[in-house]
Amino acid sequence: MEKAWPENPGAEIVCWLYYTQQTISAPGFSGQAFSTFVPHTVRAKETKQCSDCHVSAKNDNNAWMAQLLLQGTNFMNFMGRYIYVATGKKGLEAIAVAEHDEPEAIYGSDLQRIAYPDSYKQFVDHHRQLSSAAEHSGNVLDIQTRGEYAYAARGPGGLRVYDIANIDNKSFSEKITTAPVSPVGQRFFVPTKNAVAVASPTTLGVDPLRQQLPENEEQPIHLLYGFLYVADREEGLVIIGDPNLKSKSPGVGTLLDGNPANNFLKRALAFNPGGVLSGAHRVTIAGTFAYVLTDKALIVVDLDNPLAPKVTATIGAPQLNDPRGIAVQFRYAFIADHDGLKVLDVTDLAQPRWIANALVPLEDARNIYVARTYAYVSAGKQGLAIIDVEKPEAPKLDQLFTAEGQLNDVNDTKIGMVAASAFAFIADGRNGLRVLQILSPWDDPAHFSGFSPRPTPKLIATARTRGPALAISKGIDRDRAVDESGNQLAVFGRRGARPLNRAEIRRLYIHANTGQPYAVTDDADTAEKSRSTPSSSPASSRTPLFLRARAWMESFQ
């Protein structure tokens, strides 16, 4: 922040030059650095158990494993001061939901009540209503922000990229622009026939084009992070970016190089072999795979070479019925379809396996977001369905939240954290944007602590959008340093430090000899018995370390 002093010495103008923008490290990884130093603490009563680092025989630590491996859990995401909402034919809106200064308390939250009591009282007196800070017309069906830009799927208008950098300081009438410089000098759109969803391979600032120095001992950044991915109902999966890898700015590197003079986006290819991806309307990236939902099925596309994609699996009826949303966490994918929430085992990302009887019935499931051990299903007229997925193969409904009937057209949900509180940002269709406080140390101090406390949602703010709120941009993944295929995303705070790669990750739950999943128990006696008793589940219980230790001790007797 810098201050500009006006002619009147009694007045002070505060000018924020750059506000809550993420950084990119010199080698191209996200500048959101991870520390390699472990806490030097001594515990008197407990220590690490086998299930802290391996799949539990109870199959209740899927979220914990995602956190351990730094794949992220979507719980601590940074949403920022502005929530970007797609509002269909009314375009997109940036809605201010937090204080400008630190701490960036969400309006109407317990933190605002304590840190900004006057502002909180004023906000409550005005019926907890938020207002749009910036907007742009057009037909926006889906939106994802990253850094200085917002990527928007615009139906027959294809993909459009908007400049959203530093909107606090833009004094001209259009704070969200389609061209930061003359349209003659750039092309920030890519035509497609009917783009309905867009996916960035990461919300982090990752630039594959930056030079990596050998002495830093960094891993290479995977090529798929140089492109964007669009679900098009007619063309299938459209890959955005310059396909010429020898050009000065291959892929969509122009969006990350800080140079506004070369903003020319290109289209690499459209992928729809035999029409299998026709009707594509949702896409999410898990490792080097795109999970694409069509009207009939889930299609898994291998993007290890994004310029030569290939289909590896298709799951349709009767397992899936009109799939509408998907979220991946470590070994499982959670799908919202016409019947409700369903579960797939994605231990092999290329070949998901349907889990029979893992179903939570819902009348109007539209999308899904998973944060640690809870799935948040945008359940339309039923409001927000919060489902306990601590045991992914046995999900159970925890609660349906409607704020006494006020949430009745829920299309999308994203979770973010500010200080010690967590919030759900809801695209509630005709009702606009809703903000829920779902965790707060002041709201429920007795049950607040722990890895994944039970949500206690309450409606704290509403913004009446110009059009129906259809989708909300996901926040920055603050706890994600590696993808599901073992590709590093964030820089580490020591030379040569890195997350586990794919082969190393798989050793924690795939048996080296059989190639099959294994699970562990923290009880050595139980482990020995389970070793001699065949398991009915795909993951057998083995604790070779305990068994070898016991044999070694018995050798001295």
What report would you give on this structure?
This protein is mostly beta strands and 557 residues long. It has six helices and 35 strands. The strands form ten sheets. A five-stranded mixed β-sheet has the order 6-31-30-29-28, with no helix packed on it. The longest helix has 11 residues, at 544-554. The chain starts with a strand and ends with a helix. Mean pLDDT is 89; it is low at 1-16 and 530-542.
How many structural domains are formed by the residues?
Answer: 1
The parts where pLDDT drops under 50 for at least 5 residues are 1-16, 530-542
Q: What is the terminal separation in angstroms?
A: 70 Å
How many helical stretches?
Answer: 6
Q: Helicity level, as a percent range?
A: under 10%
Q: Strand order across the biggest sheet?
A: 6-31-30-29-28
> What amount of the residues lies in strands?
25-35%
Q: Kindly state the mean pLDDT as a whole number?
A: 89
Briefly note the CATH topology name: Methylamine Dehydrogenase, Chain H
Major sheet description: 5 strands, mixed
CATH class: Mainly Beta
Compact summary:
This protein has 557 residues and is mainly beta.
Give the topology, please:
Elements: E1 2-4, E2 13-15, E3 30-34, H1 62-68, E4 82-86, E5 92-96, H2 110-115, H3 117-125, E6 129-130, E7 132-136, E8 142-146, E9 149-153, E10 159-163, E11 189-190, E12 195-199, E13 228-232, E14 236-240, E15 267-271, E16 282-286, E17 289-293, E18 298-302, E19 310-315, E20 325-329, E21 332-337, E22 340-345, E23 353-361, E24 367-371, E25 374-378, E26 384-388, E27 396-401, E28 412-418, E29 421-427, E30 433-439, E31 458-463, E32 471-472, E33 490-492, H4 502-506, E34 518-519, H5 524-532, E35 540-541, H6 544-554
Parallel strand pairs: 3-33, 6-31, 34-35
Antiparallel strand pairs: 1-2, 4-5, 4-32, 5-7, 8-9, 9-10, 10-11, 12-13, 13-14, 14-15, 16-17, 17-18, 18-19, 20-21, 21-22, 22-23, 24-25, 25-26, 26-27, 28-29, 29-30, 30-31
